[in-house]
Every structure is written in structure tokens, then in C-alpha cells.
């Protein structure tokens, strides 16, 4: 389609002293502008037709553009549709108002863990958070304003995108992979007892979204603290009976370091924000007890 | 990645309205802990007047108790101590892994119980002062 337009422009405008490349570029630019205007118009009719409209207030920051260097909030009116999530609203704003609005998302079904955001003052997974759930708790009502910010305690790269590198470093520090002491024979299976599977079930659900780490007050003040997600990962493998005693010992040595489990002060912030409902505090507390038992031996 | 914008720690305590039960419990526990440590010093100072003599100790105590402010401070001290004890028990259970899903309710319970005990103690502490 774009090549067609370019050809037209070329025949229409032969007098201009422009290279073919530049002409094509200008044409594409015009086309984009048109598309943008079209989307804006569509948004206006959407807003007129919609029963409920709410304001999406989004944190904006872009260090590469001088006008956007200073963090600010942009407000986009979004027509509410039934079942709309925070991620849907963000995508609506990006598609209809400002294509430079930047945020991470991928699967849209709470599996990839890309879109943990700070919504109305709490860490939420954008794709899992219904707009109606942000209103009054008693009756599901669309709130007047939904404020979306990037995760706190992480550096903002652009708009809602934060630097996750530190979080991933902490996750990798606990060796988050299955590493048994002895491997089974080639024709053998590595069976796990049902009870053991139940025990680690919740801890396997982590999607690495970083909401817990961002909500943790201790992790905010102590950069070396492993954080709830990493400790939960350590729990998942330390409690897995298939790994064996030797590896468990190694894992306990990692988690009982100075900046390991003992930094947790049971504020329950992580447990409250976890989009996968992992009882993080419970797991951390259990590892604390394991660590004590491991070091207190009277025989 | 180019430069990035660090929002620092500013948002933390500025967002106190959005704190949850566990967070408040933590803040109150820290605060009451520090108050109790501060009280410990005054406690030792007052008690050590007994090393001078019986009369000195009695004079110090009755002097302090005759001040209305001290009576009110005592009520405050009781509130702080009772909350610290009750929340300490709550934390003990949390450490033992008992009732973690009821941690917010147990925090509210310790607050209510603290309030009740403090109100009940007011007549005793303020007797004869007003």
C-alpha cells in the first residue's frame, strides 16, 4: 500500500527537487499523520457513544527528547467497555492518542509477567486488573481516574518501562534451576511425591513480574537483599525433594546470608501485591525456620 | 539503554494513605520499640535515685507523680507497651508460620485490645491527679 502512495506522489510532484527516498519518507509521514488523525476521530466518536468514560492518568518520561525529560502525567479519556483491563486502557490510549506511550506487554493473560505496573498506588499486573475492580470495593463501579505509574524502586527507562536488570540479577543469584545431586539412569524417571508437589505448587507459579520486589520496603532500602521473588524461587527448589541433601545445603547457604531471608521483616507487602497469589511471606518464614534448624544441631 | 530517571525513595512515606495492615504493624512496632528504649533510660535514671537514699527516691517519685503531664505520659507508655507486646505475640505466630492468612485481622485485634486496655487503665493512672 505504501509503495502505491509513493508512486502517486512522484507523478504528482515532479517539479520538486527531491530524492526518491525523501519523497517516500514524506509520503509515509503524511500517511502516518492521516492514520493518527483517523484514530483520534474514532476516539471522539467512541467517547460520544460510550456510557462510561474514565480518565487514564499515565506517568510520562523520556530522557531522549528534551521536552519530555521532565517527568509528568498525561491524561487520556478512555471509553469504558465491559471487561476492560488496565492494559486494555493503556493500549487504547496508545492506539488512539499517543503512539509514543511506552509500556511492556506480551501475552495479555497474566503469564509472561511483562506488565507489572503501579496502578492507583499499588502494584498490579495490568492485564489481570479489571478497571471496575479499581473503583469502590462494595459495588463494582468504574473509577473516575485511573493513575498508572511505572513500578516504584526501579529506575524508569521510558514512560512505564523500568529497568529490570537488578531484579533479574537477584533472581539468578539463587540459581533458579533444577539441579539434582544424582541424575537418574537413562531409563528411569525422576518422580516427585504428590505431597511434595503440593508443597511447592504455589511457589512454582512465579512469573518474574517484579511486583513483589517493587512493593518491598526492605528491598527498596537494601539493594543487596535478594527480595521476595528470588527467595520464593529458592524455596521452590530447596523444598523439592528430588534435588537431594547436598544441593539443599548449598541453597540454604545462599538464602541464609546477611542479605538473604533475615532481611525480611514480615510487612506482607509482597504477599498482598503478588498477582499469582503466592504466599511469599509464608515461604520466606519457612526458609528462616529451615535455616535455623540447619544451624542448630544439638546432636 | 540511555540514561534513566530515578524517582528515589520519595514516594514511600508520602503514600502512607495507601499502606496496608502489615505495613502499619511494622511502622507501629518500630516506633513503639524506640519509645520503649527511650523509656528504659528514664526508668533507670529514676530508679537509680534509690542508691542515694530512701528519701531521695520517694521525693523523686512523688514529685513526678504530682505532675499531670507525667500521668498522661504513663497512659501513653502503657499504650505503647501493650501494643508492642500484642504485636510481638502476633509476630511470634508469624515466625512460627501460624495463621499467616489472618495477619491483618490479628493486627486490628491487637490495636483494638490495646485501645480497650488503655481506656480501662485511665481511672487508675489519673486517680487523684485531676
Short description:
The complex is a heterodimer of chains A (299) and B (130). Chain A is of the alpha+beta class and 299 residues long.
What is the level-2 CATH architecture name of the largest domain in chain A? Answer: Roll
Give the largest interface: A-B, 29 and 28 residues
Spans of chain B with pLDDT under 50 lasting ≥5 residues?
none
Helical content of chain A (DSSP H or I, runs of 4+): 40-55%
Provide the β-strand percentage band of chain A. 5-15%
Low-confidence stretches of chain A: 1-10
Number of helices of chain B: 5
* Rg over C-alpha atoms of chain B, rounded to the nearest angstrom: 20 Å
The CATH superfamily of the largest domain in chain A bears the name: Beta-grasp domain
| CA(first)-CA(last) distance of chain B | 68 Å
Enter the CATH topology name of the largest domain in chain A. Ubiquitin-like (UB roll)
Q: What is the strand arrangement across the widest sheet of chain A?
A: 2-1-5-3-4
Shape of chain B: elongated
User: Looking at this structure, what is the CATH superfamily of chain B?
Assistant: Fumarate reductase/succinate dehydrogenase, transmembrane subunit
Broad CATH class of chain B: Mainly Alpha
Note the overall shape of chain A. Answer: elongated
Give the number of domains of chain B: 1
* Overall pLDDT level of chain A: 89
- CATH class (first level) name of the largest domain in chain A: Alpha Beta
> What Rg of chain A is obtained from the alpha carbons, in whole angstroms?
25 Å
Commentary on this structure:
- The complex is a heterodimer of chains A (299) and B (130).
- With 299 residues, chain A is of the alpha+beta class.
- Chain A folds into two domains: 27-158, Beta-grasp domain (Ubiquitin-like (UB roll), Roll); 164-295, Fumarate Reductase Iron-sulfur Protein, Chain B, domain 2, CATH 1.10.1060.
- Chain A is 41% helix and 11% strand.
- Chain A contains eleven helices and seven strands.
- Chain A has a five-stranded mixed β-sheet.
- In chain A, a hairpin with a 2-residue loop joins strand 6 and strand 7.
- In chain A, helix 4 (165-173) runs parallel beside helix 8 and helix 9 crosses helix 11 (280-295).
- Chain A starts with a helix and ends with a helix.
- With 130 residues, chain B is mostly helical.
- Chain B has a single domain, classed as 3 helical TM bundles of succinate and fumarate reductases (Up-down Bundle), CATH 1.20.1300.10.
- Chain B contains five helices and no strands.
- In chain B, helix 2 crosses helix 4 (68-96).
- The longest helix of chain B has 29 residues, at 68-96.
- The termini of chain B are far apart.
- The mean pLDDT of chain B is 87.
- The chains are: A alpha+beta (299), B mainly alpha (130).
- The A-B interface holds A 61, 63-64, 71, 121-122, 152-153, 155-157, 163, 217, 220-221, 265-269, 271-272, 279, 281-282, 285-286, 288-289 and B 1-7, 9, 11-12, 15, 17-18, 20-23, 25-26, 91, 94-97, 100-101, 103-104.
Amino acid at each position: 500500500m505504501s509503495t502505491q502512495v509513493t508512486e502517486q506522489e512522484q507523478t504528482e510532484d515532479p517539479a520538486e527537487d527531491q530524492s526518491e527516498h525523501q519523497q517516500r519518507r514524506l509520503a509515509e509521514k503524511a500517511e502516518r499523520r492521516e492514520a493518527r488523525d483517523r484514530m483520534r476521530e474514532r476516539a471522539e466518536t467512541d467517547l460520544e457513544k460510550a456510557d462510561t468514560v474514565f480518565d487514564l492518568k499515565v506517568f510520562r518520561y523520556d530522557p531522549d527528547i528534551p521536552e519530555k525529560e521532565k517527568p509528568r502525567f498525561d491524561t487520556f479519556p478512555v471509553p469504558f467497555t465491559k471487561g476492560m483491563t488496565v492494559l486494555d486502557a493503556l493500549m487504547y490510549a496508545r492506539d488512539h492518542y499517543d503512539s509514543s506511550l511506552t509500556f511492556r506487554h506480551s501475552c495479555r493473560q497474566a503469564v509472561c509477567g511483562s506488565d507489572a505496573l503501579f496502578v492507583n498506588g499499588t502494584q498490579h499486573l495490568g492485564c489481570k486488573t479489571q478497571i471496575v475492580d479499581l473503583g469502590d470495593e462494595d459495588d463494582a463501579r468504574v473509577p473516575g481516574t485511573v493513575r498508572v505509574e511505572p513500578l516504584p524502586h526501579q529506575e524508569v527507562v521510558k514512560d512505564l518501562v523500568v529497568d529490570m536488570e537488578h531484579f533479574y540479577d537477584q533472581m539468578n543469584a539463587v540459581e533458579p534451576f533444577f539441579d539434582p545431586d544424582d541424575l537418574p539412569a537413562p531409563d528411569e524417571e525422576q518422580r516427585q511425591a504428590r505431597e511434595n508437589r503440593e508443597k511447592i505448587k504455589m511457589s512454582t507459579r512465579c512469573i518474574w513480574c517484579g511486583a513483589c520486589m517493587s512493593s518491598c520496603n526492605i528491598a527498596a532500602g537494601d539493594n543487596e537483599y535478594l527480595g521476595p521473588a528470588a527467595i520464593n524461587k529458592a524455596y521452590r527448589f530447596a523444598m523439592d525433594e528430588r534435588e537431594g541433601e547436598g544441593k539443599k545445603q548449598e541453597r540454604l547457604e545462599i538464602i541464609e546470608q546477611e542479605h538473604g531471608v533475615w532481611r525480611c521483616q514480615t510487612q506482607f507487602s509482597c504477599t498482598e501485591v503478588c498477582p499469582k497469589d503466592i504466599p511469599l511471606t509464608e515461604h520466606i518464614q519457612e526458609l528462616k525456620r529451615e535455616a535455623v534448624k540447619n544451624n542448630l544441631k544439638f546432636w | 539503554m540511555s540514561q534513566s530517571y530515578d524517582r528515589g525513595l520519595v514516594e514511600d512515606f508520602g503514600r502512607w494513605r495507601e499502606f496496608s495492615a502489615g505495613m502499619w504493624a511494622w511502622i507501629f512496632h518500630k516506633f513503639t520499640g524506640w519509645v520503649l528504649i527511650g523509656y528504659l533510660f528514664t526508668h533507670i535514671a529514676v530508679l537509680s535515685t534509690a542508691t542515694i537514699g530512701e528519701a531521695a527516691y520517694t521525693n523523686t517519685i512523688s514529685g513526678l507523680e504530682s505532675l499531670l503531664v507525667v500521668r498522661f505520659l504513663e497512659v501513653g507508655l502503657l499504650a505503647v507497651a501493650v501494643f508492642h507486646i500484642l504485636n510481638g505475640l502476633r509476630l511470634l505466630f508469624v515466625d512460627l508460620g501460624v495463621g499467616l492468612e489472618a495477619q491483618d485481622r490479628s493486627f486490628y485485634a491487637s490495636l483494638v485490645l490495646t485501645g480497650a486496655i488503655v481506656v480501662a487503665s485511665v481511672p487508675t493512672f489519673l486517680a487523684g491527679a485531676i
